[in-house]
Records
---
Amino acid sequence: MIIGVPREIKNNEFRVGMTPGGVREFVAHGHSVLVEKAAGEGSSFTDDEYKAAGAELVDVADEVFARADMIVKVKEPQAVEIERLRPGQILYTYLHLAPDLAQTQGLIKSGAVCIAYETVELPNRSLPLLAPMSEVAGRMAAQVGAAYLQKPFGGRGVLMGGVPGTYPAKVVVLGGGVVGTNAAYVAMGMGADVTIMDVNLDRLRYLDEIWGNRIRTVFSSKHNIEEAVYAADLVIGAVLLPGAKTPYLVTKDMLPKMKRGSVVVDVSVDQGGCIETTHPTTHADPTYFVDGVLHYGVANMPGAVPNTSTLALTNATLRYGLAIADKGWKQAVIDDAALAQGVNVLDGKITYKPVADAHGMNYTPLDRLM
């Protein structure tokens, strides 16, 4: 199989879909890998490293898309990339289709086999290809929140850990999954007063067992959310419904009651966000104010630390990518139910129900198209 790795073109996206080490693995399995020149530079991987690993360097993305049987990316395809896809071609990347009607329609029209990292799901309901970036984004959320709490950046002027004789920042984390746990871990390490909220009592018990009284675990009811958010200096949105649009936990009418200069970092924004007033932003223009509350809604947070992020992501995606290339996508998803969950669009039809439901479109079970 011919594997294509184009350079990412989303605003301030510096990650790359495959490392030179990954190229070496695909080549060892008998596949050819096309890498667009400079695709890895943002992640500190040089063209010479890719060439030494066995890749063929290609001047332009058009050639990568035209020749490859499978495109391996990081972020969802941009409009110009969707136009390059063809029927039967495999697209293996993050998609986040539930809040993105235009992309969904474009992929349906393309006829490509669209496999989303974020919906590959193991029997225990964990998301092995989303988890690495959730870990990065969660840890970054606390760092970013700490920075924007500083007055020159628009925040209240609160130090996360405070100093003797002062109060530390009050941090509320909405969601106790991978993102929320990592956000709480870093915020706690910075000395903040951390509350983590979730509807899953078993998860809260687990967090209480590992951290004890170093954090507060609170059930995520509307009343409890309001009380916590109104008192918070920093709110981190870390809610996820796999493949589906995120519900709003912080609504617009709550903002006037929040502290002026408080900060919200909505890591859920690429699935629609769990804070109603959040919309996607970029690293070039990351923040805006609503009712005196500073909002950070960068949809590709891990892109700011691309070397770490690319290594963490490709450690997880490589085994599934090799299975697709070695067996063909059909046999690969037959053999692996987790990978089958990743197929979101096939033959012009939506094969992942939460995406179809989000857009009010028809859902076609994958097995009907196999």
---
Amino acid sequence: MSIKQAPQTACRRDARQRLFTAEAANRTLVYLRPIVRDVVDEYRRLEGWRAERRSLMAIRPRARRVTDLRVLLERAVERLTALQQEIAAVGCELKDWERGIVDFPSLRDGCRVHLCWQLGEAEVAHWHDHATGMSGRQPLPPDFD
């Protein structure tokens, strides 16, 4: 579905939500990049601990390490939640902990869309409409702002 064919509800704007231009989103990356890097790193650790705990539970469910891993997992989830809240406080939405994907609410032709950035990319250079998400990701046209 193209943005011009989006249903009327997709073109409504929440007056309380911050909207980003591509330029503003790119300026925000200076702050967000290290936070998103921390999210991806912490998520990798969490997944490693989950796998280790599952393996141990199958063979030695009462092992001290199982308890230690539970504590590590709880703390990792707390850290990830805090980092996600820090990103949300800027007005962005963390979409993927594993790949470090962040959406920036924006408007295009009066409709709500998302500027989209992934850790490792030099700048915010893609967008997608509200309905399609990452699968509808497209390069930003020169006239986006």
---
Amino acid sequence: MEVCRTGFSVENVRQLFKSIYPLLSLLSKLIITSKFRVYCQLVRLPNIFTSISDIVAGCILATHAFIDLHKMLLLASVSGCLYGGGVVFNDIFDCSTDITERPGRPLPSGTVGKREAIYLGIILFLTALLCSLLVNTTSLCISIVIILLVMSYNVWTKTVPVIGTFNMGLCRFFNLMLGLSIIPASISTYWMFPLILMIYVMLITALSKQEVKGEQRWKIGIIITCFIGLVLFIGSLSVKGLLPNHAMHGLLFIFTMIVLWPMSRTFINPCPKNIQSTIKTMVLSIIILDACFVMGSTDGIHVLVVLALLVPAYIISRFLYVT
């Protein structure tokens, strides 16, 4: 299927922002209502913007700065529904544990019934499959793989050391692949970026394992060391020509500092509160990491579209938890 490509310029960015502003305004008003707020909490609404940033970045990379907006919006919907459905089922399977550890969450508090949550999760997954089918068969296949990975994590691998962390990383690996699937042939060219994202999410998952009880300092030290190594590897990609725009290094430095600051604070005092704050920063910073991929691979203007997702993600995360 041939992709209809349209030039992407500053004017396109302005028009895109103008078109989504009413939606963001409506969203902010709806969040005020208690029931809708509960659903937003259940699906981790702030995190969904980080999932969508993978799609936007993947589409920009795949189309070489030309975007089929219709297909990109479909893929963004797929990703959002997959993420939302995944965390809904995560809370369903964790309900008995959350009664003790996180009693204020929607399911253990009783504000959302378990049957109601199951229906919501199924609807989100089915919507994702339908939207992916409207893009192409590659997108549909990747969506199915993500659902299988998400459910395997929720049902089994979550409690298995290493395997569960790897499983969660794979979910993000295929999510960025989903963005690239707008042009399936691009996957073989840009597979390195989903791999980097996978490793980064594995570090977040490893840290999140002890967010309730607190973490041992030496484990945090290992995570910090791995993170620094990953950043150095990303920087080296410009030497190999995979990220030819060297302006990316400035954004990469900002990304590193934003993540390292809470990490170092957690290393000094590995209490649950600091760990949860670090996880929140690392999750939202996925958007900046995606922006680094885009800036390194394009002339830079397209990075604004990715970074713009930080605004709603950060604002909403001040009212809704992300872990």
---
Amino acid sequence: MSSGASPLGSLLNNPQLLQALYPGLNLTGLSQLQQEEETALEQPIQTLTNEISNFTQVSQTWSGIQADVNALASDASALSTATTWSSPSASVSPTGVVDASASSTASAGTYNVDVTTQGAYDQWLGQSEASSSSALNLQGTFTINGSSINVTSTDSLTSIAAKINAASAGATATVMTGTNNGVTSYYLALDSTQYEALNISDPSNILKGTGSSGLGMVEQPNTGKSWVYTVNGVQTSSTTGTDSVAVPGLTLNLQGAGSTTVTVSTSTSQAQSALNQFISDYNALQSAINKATGKGAILQGDPTADGIMQQINSALLATNSSAPVGYQSIADAGITINLQSDNTTQLAFSASTFQSAATSNAQALQAIFTGSGGVATQLKTVLNNLGDTSTGVIAGVQTNIQSQISDLTNEETQEQGLITIQQNALQDQFNQEMQALIAVTSQKDQLSGLLTAMLNNGSGGSSSSSSSSSGG
């Protein structure tokens, strides 16, 4: 059996064996040719892969810029809010008369508070009873602040207290316990929930009756009084111990009789902190755009990227000529836009200029940023238009990029299918060429073997004839 009888499939998958069986085959040249053809087939795929990679990098760059834009938008939103600029605080001296807290609507000023009557909850205490749970054999009705409580003969101190509490009459009932010479006694106590006297109506003498006819309750001295006080000479009173009406935005928690001064002041520290954050985020955004649009960078020449800082700076540099002199632009608040060596901008902040403006006219300083014409208000609109993740300009750019990536990915998939078909055809062609070469090589080897045998046979015959002749 000739060498051509070996299974071709196994030989083609084992180049070393194939080369050993057929030394004359030029497998190196054939394999190199096949590799070059396969590389040529894969070139379109590589081109598409590179395009997808480039668009992906562009998308990632825009994602970073969008995040920076939205961080700046958040800063602008804070600066456009009045509460950022007005942070009132209240101080009290001396303490012990009132405690005070100021909301964002409180006006700066000094308020003299004089508490003339210290409030006291109304307190009633009953006579001693031998048991808290035994029936008292009392029957009738009484009212507390208009709420009716019905007592039956089976009610005890505990059940009467429960009925009072369930009536939500502005009073709390408690059964108290006392011990004297080893004897335990029980008492019903009433406390008002407001600083005012309880309005009690007791026609059946359930509460006020004594001995076995009632609970013997008596109002305690110096109780049931509202707070009485003046604020800057205007007298008022409170049954809750709290006042949030006398001075809008200022809450007074009454503590005791006496005189004190409450000072409400505003601070711009929160606004200054917000400005520092804004400047830091502005500079970060500018640096990110510089990096993305510089020479050879991935967004070089992109008009959308180039226009972002132009829109932001246009809003920042707006002036309000109708505002007071010295409070018409961000420069008056201590913010300057400085040109860098690469012709880009960076913000700088002068805390001393800001504080000077705040001390001279805090409201005018705030107006530079807040209100419909404020710089921060205008900036917030510009930045939201750029960075909104649903409707913003950058979101539109990202949608377009993702659409192109999707189209290229689909094209890559289709191209891969075509390449697979071509590669299979190329492999079939390679196999056929190998079969032809193997056949030619096999025939060549066989012919070479026959020729060698014929030559060897011819040489042997001549030698024999010469020997015979010599022997005769």
